[in-house]
Write a structure and sequence with these properties.
Layout lengths: L7 H39 L13 H12 L2 H5 L4 H25 L6 H6 L6 H63 L1
């Protein structure tokens, strides 16, 4: 007669294994949630809070006004005397900015004039100044990368030109040899 009951010891082992696997799953879930919370907190601290309205942060209208005044050429900013002249000079400045933007897109090598840089109005807020500094730093890095790329291209073109010159010289030697051989064969025959 066989006992149809499982051994008590085996069922305890199976229960222990199941409990151990459940514990591992819960630990993995808790660790994943912990990493998500830590990641969110680090991300939240690294992103500047734009919802705070303090005395140091300007309104959107002030930022737009400062950005427009910074984008206008210095000559137009200094020449604005009365409201009628201001409106017409602003429209002219916007047209000139649109024209310079179009030419900048076409040429990709526009260098700003030093007088324009020196006479440009200063940003009204610290955040605008920081944004301008960051923009100029990005532009400087882009120019450095373009300069590096251009120098690499020049070096590669010089190397290719030298290789082509060597290939042409070799082909000329082969042609001279073939002509010499054909003249020798013509004399023999």
């Amino acid at each position: 007669m066989k006992n149809k009951k499982k051994h008590l010891l085996l069922s305890k082992r199976e229960k222990a294994k199941a409990a151990k696997s459940r514990r591992r799953i819960w630990i993995a879930i808790i660790l994943a949630l912990l990493f998500i919370v830590i990641g969110y907190l680090v991300w939240a601290q690294s992103v500047p809070e734009t919802s705070k309205t303090g005395s140091s942060s300007p309104s959107i209208a002030e930022q737009n006004e400062a950005a427009q005044s910074a984008a206008m050429p210095a000559e137009n900013v200094l020449s604005e005397v009365n409201s009628d002249d201001a409106i017409t000079s602003e429209a002219t400045a916007l047209d000139q900015n649109a024209t310079t933007t179009d030419t900048a897109d076409n040429s990709n090598s526009q260098v700003p004039k030093p007088a324009t840089i020196l006479s440009a109005p200063l940003p009204k807020t610290d955040s605008l100044a920081k944004e301008e500094i960051d923009r100029l730093e990005d532009e400087r890095k882009r120019w450095a990368a373009q300069e590096k790329l251009a120098s690499e291209q020049l070096a590669m073109n010089k190397k290719l030109t030298d290789m082509k010159e060597d290939q042409i010289a070799l082909l000329e030697q082969q042609i001279a040899q073939l002509e010499a051989e054909s003249t020798v064969q013509a004399k023999v025959e």
